[in-house]
Amino acid sequence: MTNINRRSVLAGAAAAGLPLRAFADDAPIGAWTPLASMPFPVQEIYPAPFWKAPERATAKPIPFNILVNAGGLTPDREYNVTDEVTFYDPYYDKWGFARPLPEPRHHIALVNNNGYLFAIGGFARNANGGWQMRADNWRIGAIGDDWAPMRPLPHPQAEMVCASVNGTIHVVGGRAPAGSRNREWDDHIDTDQHWYYDPAADDWFSAAPMPTPRNSSAGAVRNGVLYVIGGRTVSDGNVATVEVYDPLSDRWEQARPMPKAQGGLAAAVLGQKIYVFGGEYFTGAGGGVFAEAWEYDPYRDKWRAVAAMPRPRHGLGAVGLNNAIYVLGGAAQAGGNATSAALDKFEI
Asked: How far is CA 215 from CA 11, 175, 212, 228, 305, in A?
């Protein structure tokens, strides 16, 4: 997307609500379609697929048919953090509101596991500090439910990868308090800690630590194994590292690194592949956001570029749903500025 004329064509397509496709014969594959904006701009989010309650009783399984976001940083709320829970229905291209979280949080991770939607960890932001890491969690069984408490994490952990793997919830890496103080960003360190929640036991258990401690990574599950992709460290910035966890052996392995080191990115599964979007970087002059989108083939351990994001962002979410990936929220500038309400659909 470096040709100015091509940029103009893409901008016109976005304004008309048309799919944004690569036009050159040798351009990366994929199509982007702008959809209804979120109810308000929000970044540092971890959305998940869920379902609406059926209009009538049914014995059939209810397929995932909506995406849900909870919390995040927004310029429109006190202390720039929200407790709002919103959901998007692709059938109608419309957003709605669900019951809010018990407490405003940013970086709170949503995970769909065994028929429940879990909200894990994250940070509180108020007069006591902007990065108060939390260990308590909640869950709902339907989109209209009140959030009920579940067993807390063994200790506070946030900006981690959180995913459902074979019926258990895994929390991997991210940041943890460096000591007794737990109020601001500088109070935390990268962690390699790895926990999993067993719903049958209603408890958390330790698992093999991640080889590379880091935060702001993306996670995806394919064929029963967990991929932790990219991210950043406190001391060295962005990393391209990809590590794979096999729950059957409780072991980690290295996979081929990303083509670029990206942190604050998002990932989702579509078909047999994993797709990774956006992120941010920092330099002495400030920083910026990545437009790059990547496809990873787990069978071939190979990366390739796909159609770049028409609206580059970091701190965004990505949810696979209905043979597409929905990329939402985030920020168009590095850091906390230019928070976005954008929703784009990516298809192959």
From this structure: 33, 6, 10, 10, 23
Instruction: Report d(CA 291, CA 311) in Å as an integer.
Output: 7
How much is the average pLDDT of 27-34? 88
The residue type found at 281 is Y
Per-position b or e across 203-233, b if 16+ CB within 10 A of its CB: ebeebeebebbbbbbbbbbbeebbbbbbbbb
CATH topology for 4-347? Neuraminidase (2.120.10)
Please report where in the chains the tokens 């401690």 appear, as a residue. Answer: 213
Separation CA 157–CA 151 (nearest Å)? 14
CA 46, 48, 54, 58 dihedral sign is negative
Cα angle 53, 71, 126 (rounded to 5 degrees) comes to 145
Cite the beta strand spans of 134-180 per DSSP E.
Answer: 137-140, 148-150, 161-165, 168-172, 175-177
Q: Which amino acid, residue 228?
A: V
Residues 299/300/305/308 CA torsion (nearest 10 deg): 0
Positive or negative CA dihedral for 181, 182, 184, 186? Answer: positive
**0.85 exceeded by the pTM?**
yes
User: How far is it between the farthest Cα atoms of the chain?
Assistant: 59
d(CA 47, CA 89): 14
φ and ψ of 78, to 5 deg:
-60, 135
Contacts of 323 (CB under 8 A, 6+ apart): 270, 347
Query: What is the bridge-based pairing of β-strands 168-172 and 175-177?
Result: unpaired
Task: Note the helical H segments in the chain.
Answer: 4-15
CA distance 320 to 219: 13
What's the Cα-to-Cα distance from 96 to each of 40, 92, 93, 146, 320, rounded to whole Å? 11, 11, 10, 16, 19
* pLDDT score recorded for residue 252: 98
Question: What ranges do the domains of the chain cover?
Answer: 4-347
* pLDDT over 60 (residue 46): yes
Q: What does the buried/exposed string (b/e) look like for 151-167 if buried means 16 or more CB atoms within 10 Å of the residue's CB? A: eebeebbbbbbbbbbee
Residue with tokens 């990809």: 242
Task: State the pLDDT confidence band at 54, using cuts at 50, 70 and 90.
Answer: low
